[in-house]
Amino acid sequence: GMLMKRVIVSVKSTQRDADGEDTVVELVSSGKYYETALAKHIIYDESEVTGLGNTKTTIKAYKDSVVLLRTGEFSMRHEYQLGKTNIASLETPYGAVELAMLTHELDIDLKDGKGHICLGYDISVGGEWQFYNQLYVEIREDVHYGHERSFESSH
Which long-range contacts (CB under 8 A, 24 or more apart) does 104-110 make? Predict the structure, then answer.
């Protein structure tokens, strides 16, 4: 069967614009993790911090690609494949925006509810390059959940 684990999801998103300026947004959220024969899944809620309030994000990590699925106020399905440009339609409260993303970095290292995914990609809107985005998602088991609660003293 499918073993669902509770995890802590840390997301660091870095946007680099044409001037080389970085905008960094970090989010820590509780989430869920499970593995199927084909993919490893991470599910968590976005927050106002990321400008995506009331949105649930599912990340599916396959062998050579990552699919990002957002449902809620800002809905999107996007697939990242190394060296490929994929088009995504972002549904926003203000209408749909079409984004083209060319993936330069794709690193997946996930096992049993621990590990990371790193994505780096160019984002273009309407044929115009906007910025380079790097997404680093790290997960660890949520040990403070249920019977796994640990009472470690701080050194």
Answer: 104/132, 105/134, 106/64, 106/65, 106/66, 106/80, 106/81, 106/82, 108/40, 108/61, 108/66, 110/40, 110/42, 110/61, 110/139
Segment 98-108, tens digit of pLDDT: 889 999 999 99
Q: Which two tokens stand for residue 55?
A: 């949105």
Calpha distance 25→51 (Å, rounded): 10
Strand partners, 14: 24, 134
Whose tokens are 């300026």? That residue is 21
Decide: pTM greater than 0.85. Answer: no
CA distance 68 to 89: 12
CA distance 125 to 128: 5
